[in-house]
Amino acid sequence: WGNAVATKPKVLITRRWPEAVEAKLKETYDVTLNESDVPMTVDEIRQALNDYDAVCPTVSDKVDAAALAVEAPRAKILASYGVGYSHIDTEAAKKAGLVVTNTPEVLSGCTADLAITLMLMAARRAGEGEREVRAGKWTGWRPTHMIGTKVSGGVFGVLGFGRIGREAAKRAHFGFGMKVIYFDAYPVKPELAAETGAEARDSIEAVLAEADVVSLHMPGGKENYHLISTERLKLMKPTAILVNTARGEVVDGVALAAALEAGTIAGAGLDVFEGEPKIVPELLATEKAVLLPHLGSATLATREAMGWRVMDNLEAFFKGETPKDRVA
Ligand code: DGY
């Protein structure tokens, strides 16, 4: 880092983190917590870059070019709490002289668990059923009531065969006897595909056309904006289920709601939304979508592990080393 500080480095945590991690952070650094636990504004983040040695944002903080429009900021690292970092303009961060880190690996299993939860909920109409019971509208068992889709033994299509996609594939394959197919824009090591006997397909379209369940695991941001569009939804089977635990902007939400209502596909399980926490009214209105409030990594063990990973990155950085999880 070069300019070692005599006193403890000043670190800003933009949201409340699990207690154990906050306590450890306070022992090590001069920590400021955003006690209100609401997302910080772009202006507040810009100011923070001048006031702190490290800023630790989350997925719900927008660290865009405007937030990073600072000349010679005091902060030299954005140690993000989370694996996805499309909320950070990494080019602008680099220009401002900031190192960016994330927290991969520790949340893969937990997020994959939620993808499977969404798959089952959407396929077996669990959200719809629960709403019916709670509304006092259930009239009793009958052979034709709330018929869903059987996913066991079907084809599990993964778009983005990284760590989380592969964990989801393991659960689908070993837990539900599903055949795994995938597309990834980057080469996948054969031994990683072999874990689940996963077969590569040469395009997104090929996976969409063949899969009974399509699970999205690619990064968000401009490059994958509305990758799942009206045209691509039309390629899916009418019985298919779409699961998104990646980033909201990957799916055109209005197009998805229209496809669900038209019967182009059977159901969707969504944990992430473009512009969240706002959700397009069309998705809120359809019974065929299961909607969760971005819970992919939401277990205490995982959220703590994410915190420890941020601490590892900060420690390496303040020692003058390259943090293990440097992404920019
Ligand atoms: C991430 O880490 O990117 C998730 O979306 C939040 O855990």
CATH topology of the largest domain: Rossmann fold
Along the chain, the helix and strand elements come as: EHEHEEHEHHEHEHEHEHEHEHEH
**What is the gyration radius calculated from CA atoms?**
21 Å
Number of domains: 2
Roughly what fraction of the amino acids lie in strands?
A: 5-15%
| Distinct compounds present | (2R)-2,3-dihydroxypropanoic acid
The major sheet is characterized as: 7 strands, parallel
Give the mean pLDDT: 97
Number of helices: 12
In the CATH scheme, the class of the largest domain would be: Alpha Beta
Helix content: 25-40%
- Per DSSP E runs of 2 or more residues, the count of β-strands stands at 12
Please state the structural category: alpha/beta
Pfam families: 2-Hacid_dh, 2-Hacid_dh_C
GO molecular function: glyoxylate reductase (NADPH) activity; hydroxypyruvate reductase [NAD(P)H] activity; NAD binding
Organism: Methylobrevis albus
Domain D-isomer specific 2-hydroxyacid dehydrogenase NAD-binding: 116-296
Question: How is the secondary structure organized here?
Answer:
Layout: E1 10-13, H1 19-28, E2 30-33, H2 42-51, E3 54-56, E4 77-79, H3 90-95, E5 99-101, H4 108-123, H5 126-134, E6 155-159, H6 163-176, E7 179-183, H7 190-194, E8 199-200, H8 204-210, E9 213-216, H9 230-235, E10 241-244, H10 253-262, E11 267-270, H11 281-285, E12 289-291, H12 300-318
Parallel strand pairs: 1-2, 1-3, 3-4, 4-5, 6-7, 6-9, 7-8, 9-10, 10-11, 11-12
Bound molecules: (2R)-2,3-dihydroxypropanoic acid.
